[in-house]
Amino acid sequence: MTKTFLLGASSLLTLLAATPASAQHAGHAGHAMPMPAPKPTAPQPTPPKQAAPKPDRAAATAPDPHAGHDMATPPAADPHAGHDMSATPAADPHAGHDMSAMEHGDHGAMTGALGSYPAGRESSGTAWQPDSAEHRGLMTQVGDWHLMGHADLFGVYSKQGSRRGDDKLFGAGMIMGMARRPVGEGTLQFRAAFSPDPLMGRSGYPLLLASGETANGVDRLIDRQHPHDFVMELSASISQPIGPRSSVFLYGGLPGEPAFGPGAFMHRESIMDSPEAPISHHWLDSQHISFGVLTAGLVLDRFKVEASRFNGREPDQRRWNIETGKLDSTALRASWNPTDSLSLQLSWASLKDPEQLEPGVDQKRWSASGIYATDLGSGWRSATTLAWGRKSAEGHAYDAFVAESSLKKGLWTLFGRGEITENSELLPIDHEDEDHHGEAFRVGKISAGAIRDFAIAPQVKLGVGGLVAVNFVPEGLREEYGKSRPLGGMAFVRLKVG
């Protein structure tokens, strides 16, 4: 599997080297693929003057296409410089465009795989984000297939204080690829994502106040973030328009992401530049690697409703394999993008036996979130997410609240996150306790950091960054941690392709 991961990384870098600059693109939602400059047309010789019949009115009033031009001067090498390409039609209506956008009647903008809206609206799985969210990647076209790929790979040193802290050097991140083509009036898409996380070992990395999953099938990981599986997504979707701004779609993944919560944290523009996982992960988006998902949805312009059947069991401690299981759990989600800058969602899920260490215990989950992303002017850009999640089981309900934001200008990014969770997993499981739940503690965390990117090649950046976190521990846990405000921090580098 390690060889497979390295091969995937090598293939992405090969795509970068092989793709001409005119076929690469990084930018925001709604941008078309860059179009090749039209070949200059040689001037035609002027015919000799001769008597001519009186022209009709239409011909007399038609503008002279050459008026004001010196035809002896060749056109500029880049005739599109300074123009918004998403609004400029090409001489060849098919040149350089995403063919799914053509099928939906939009000749200037790349549309989403699930509907005729800007492609930037689509986040992980079938989740939505603002239309104005960043939409980047290496893009090219081969026949009817539109291809895209990007990678974010981190090298991180984590140091967590207190009696329960630890330190570790590890790698994390993801490599993603997408292939899309029109099918009749609809769109077919395949997507794959892989992570180097399993290389860090089964016990993951130290992260105070985090909990969930297991390293050995017996003990829960506490004050550590579990590694994600090597295969993060293998999915396919197909959509069919049923009106000018409406569509129906099917999405399936092994693994994939059901219709619950906002997009996964590593896809949210508000915090994607941080290598640190949220301690609220298992309230909001831990289902993003579900080994078996089938989702059906309806898009009505800026509204979307969808339902999923999926395998509710979280991945086990074996991170390199593909797991299978019954589609025994259900998720429902309603999404609304009232403006280009705002995305809202409300979702519910019923999970069958999700925790390996709590056999026979089902859960209900709720989530609501809002994501706002906008350009502030003068080169500044901001993105913010506010989210709430609740999970309940055996008469207990636990809430989590999250606020995260990023501020970008040029090659600099500042980011921060604040969280509160009600967590009953911070003390070891008492295996003789039939209730499976320990005492719940309300804990909090604030983290802030920055990253500075350095462009080392077209579409390739190397970033250097760091973050500091303050953890808030209640009275009942202070003896465990040895202090009420333990600190944590990370220093990291990031390779960003696309």
Automatic annotation (TrEMBL):
Pro residues bias: start-end ranges: 35-50
Entry annotated with the keyword Signal: yes
Key word Iron present: no
N-terminal signal peptide: 1-23
This protein's UniProt keywords: Signal
Biased composition regions of type Low complexity, renumbered to the chain: 25-34, 51-65
Chain intervals for the UniProt region annotation (Disordered): 25-131
Bias kind Basic and acidic residues: ranges: 94-107
Protein known as: TonB-dependent receptor
